[in-house]
Design a protein that fits this description.
The protein starts with a strand and ends with a helix. The radius of gyration is 17 Å and the shape is globular. It is of the alpha/beta class. It is 35% helix and 18% strand. It folds into two domains: 90 residues, 2-Layer Sandwich (b-12 dependent (class ii) ribonucleotide reductase, Chain A, Domain 2), CATH 3.30.1620; 82 residues, no CATH class. Helix 3 packs across helix 5.
Length: 180
Amino acid sequence: MVEYVLFASPELVKELGSNALAIDVSAGNAPYNVFSPFYSWGNEIIPVPGMPDRKSRTIEGIWQGLKLIDDQPDLALLTTDIVKKRRFPDYENTRFLFGSTEIDLANARTKIYVPAYKWVFDNLIPETVKQSIYLPAQQGISVYIFDVDSNPDISDLSRSYSHASLLVDLINRELKRKAR
């Protein structure tokens, strides 16, 4: 089984020793940088949820591009490689564009973020990278995955949702499927 941890310091990684694998999926080093929502796939190939005619280079481009700031999305972010977070002063009340409909943050997480991330996991993450996590977990080695965010609860709207938490769910589902 793979676990989500809020933060893993170099000291913790040393303490875990060879019986554990700690993976930073924030943006970090290859090969695990492909799990970052900021990772650019080089061209627009990620389907934009709610917009069947649009594709994006990054998951973060979708998230930030569909975020409404002054009632406007920034669809140009779908086609850029480097996406910076667009901040809304009242985070919990951030609105997003889903198709032609405005939706709240809770719905955006389940209708936009999760499907985009899952699509990338299912279609773009190299199988060799997935196996480098699956195999140790299947051999009983503890695998800990973390990122810069510290919110594993998709329904906690007070702060950014941790993509590492979502990734752990996807990996553990796949491990359960493989164990059958």
